Amino acid sequence: MKIEEKIQAAVQEALKNLYGADIDEKQVQIQQTRSEFEGQLTVVVFPFLRASKKGPEQTGQELGQYLKDNLSDVVADFNVVKGFLNLVISSRSWIALLEDIDADDRFGLKEETADSPLVMIEYSSPNTNKPLHLGHVRNNLLGSSLARIVAANGNKVVKTNIVNDRGIHICKSMLAWLKYGNGETPESSGKKGDHLIGDYYVAFDQHYRQEVKELVAQGMDEEQAKQEAPLIKEAHEMLVKWEQNDPEVRALWKQMNEWVYAGFDETYKMMGVSFDKIYYESETYLEGKEKVMEGLEKGLFYRREDGSVWADLTAEGLDEKLLLRSDGTSVYMTQDIGTAKLRFQDYPIDKMIYVVGNEQNYHFQVLSILLDKLGFKWGKDLVHFSYGMVELPSGKMKSREGTVVDADDLIAKMIEDAYQVSKEMGKNEDIPEEEAREIARKVGLGALKYFILKVDARKNMLFNPAESIDFNGNTGPFIQYTYARIQSVLRKAASMSSPISLTNTIDLSDKEVELIQKMSDFGAVVEQAGKDYSPSGIANYCYELTKVFNQFYHDYSILNEPDEQKKAVRLMLAKNVAKIINEGMGLLGIEMPERM
Question: Each residue of 456-507: pLDDT tens digit?
Fold first, then answer.
């Protein structure tokens, strides 16, 4: 039983014996004692005044004395400040708690059971006409971390991706490759497939702008020139052929998509991101059209004179939403409905979470209502995990057309920066080159992931690569370095002497108690992060725990402590801080180096 649970039960017993009052356990509020007062846990006395018919000071004194007399193995002393009963918890209780933490290899994490809810999480959602960029990095890291956190709360999790592999943007890359590519392939060019196709998307735009410019120079209105430019007309013709299953267009589309997927897979692997199921819009949009027509027949939607199909959401305080254009082609909403249908067929989903930027807030508000109308049981309760934009202080680290920060370039630069910073600090000395490079990979990626995930996802953020790689402050490398330092201490301890068992008679310092108390919070932090869909809660807890450990490590020796019992406690503290940091950072997708 946790210390708080013992105190809660004892307070209920005390109120019954002292005042004849039966109270609910929810009325017993226990919180951590404020740093300026003596004690570690505080009981709020005010809810008990009606039962005691006495003032808060006297009630607190009587309650404190009862706990000290009847729960002496837990409560060593107490003091009352106004309506707050501050309890000094005995060292033996803290050591027992430390041993419980030590005995649980997965401390703070819940196990999945047969009847655990199934949560599906969608993230990434790339287009197949360009490589992943900085915005995708934030999306993938948030989605991947959220999946781990939801699983750590005992849920079954299915990670999905919906790939936007159809539409005019795809045809632009295909057409540019046909016109200007000379048969270039990833193999012949040495480029990743997604970069190769992205280059042709840019090439289309360059040639298209030139055509528009020439038509305007000939006296055509700019808007008309954008419609009449030969390239855009050809792209639309190609899209029609794709819709009609033209074998040549489909074969080229398939080949170019395969190049892109191979490139995406490399980036996903480098980021440590994976999916259980990938859906493709080329397969889901027809399902969506079918579902919309079904809704039309049931009277859920209506058709306008031009043949387009709409949903009237004015009764829900929204507007009217287009679902099928007059020519019968689908919109994004239709595709999302089709994807939902397929997912519901594939999995018994209890909850659906979409990780998509905040510019799509309204889209998901509408989607939730439409899915509910169409009979999807999780439609009304779908979660749009909405996040803000991410930018760089310099605007661009490396860009294509001056707008996009490439994910691969960013990751490579972070790893190289980590290597150079370690080298300048002398941390690479006496480490083989191969191992130094592997450490740099973990540190560079850890810096990137932590810096992005420590920020509240709902906020826009500025990603500063130089600041993220710092070995001090609230950064990934600072936490990784502390972990590596602990591993070094544990390796030295293992070679010095055999471990000894603890006794409950040792007195702990305030710093040691603070560390145990902080570690014991981990389960509650994971649970709260699951409720709030908040990787930042985990990140900031890991930083706080690391800070508390470093303060303890600064003030107290571990390996040079002459008292064997104290040394044993401190080694157990260090070992379990490392274990919890490793678990916590693991929920963020961050690997921990054994040495740095």
Answer: 999 999 888 888 888 888 999 999 999 999 999 999 998 876 666 666 668 8
Q: Which residue has the higher pLDDT, 427 or 253?
A: 253
3-state secondary structure of 256: helix
Q: Which letter, b or e, does each residue of 283-293 get, where b requires 16 or more Cβ atoms within 10 Å of its Cβ?
A: ebbebbbebbb
- Of 119, 263, 252, 247, give the one whose Cα is nearest residue 199: 263
Largest CA-CA distance found in the chain, in angstroms, rounded: 97
Q: What is the dotted CATH code of the domain comprising 3-89?
A: 3.30.1360.70
Q: Where are the domains of the chain?
A: 3-89, 405-587
- Cα–Cα distance, 473 to 547 (Å, whole number): 9
Q: Tell me what the pLDDT averaged over the chain comes to.
A: 92
Residue with the two structure tokens 């972990």: 483
**215 sits in which H/E element:** helix 193-217
Two tokens at 412? 């490579």
What three-state secondary structure class fits 277? Answer: strand
Q: From 139, 89, 134, 171, select the one nearest 462 (Cα to Cα).
A: 134
User: For 390-417, what is the mean pLDDT?
Assistant: 74
Helix 168-180 vs helix 193-217: crossing angle, to nearest 10: 90
Please name which of 73, 93, 95 lies closest in space to residue 501, comparing C-alpha atoms. Answer: 95
Q: How far apart are CA 121 and CA 426, in angstroms?
A: 42
Predicted TM-score (pTM) of this structure: 0.91
- Reduced to 3 states (helix: H, G, I; strand: E, B; else coil), residue 168 is helix
Give the model's pLDDT for residue 143: 98
What CATH number belongs to 405-587?
1.10.730.10
What is 11-71 written as a DSSP string?
HHHHHHHHH-----GGG--EEEPPTTSS-SEEEE-GGGHHHH-S-HHHHHHHHHHHHHHH-
Give the pLDDT confidence of 541-562 residue by residue, as tens digits: 999 999 999 999 999 999 999 9
Strands 320-324 and 309-312, bridge-based pairing: antiparallel
Q: Is the distance from CB of 352 to CB of 378 less than 8 angstroms?
A: yes
Query: At residue 397, does pLDDT exceed 50?
Result: no
What is the spatial distance between Cα 213 and Cα 312, in angstroms, rounded to a whole number?
A: 41
Is residue 399 pLDDT above 50, yes or no?
Answer: no
pLDDT of residue 400: 42
* Beta strand ranges found along 308-392 (DSSP E): 309-312, 320-324, 351-357, 383-387, 390-391
- The pLDDT, as a whole number, for residue 469 is 86
CA distances from 76 to 32, 72, 354, 593 (A): 16, 6, 50, 40
> What stretches of 425-472 show up as alpha helix (H) in DSSP?
433-453, 465-468
The three-class DSSP label of residue 400 is strand
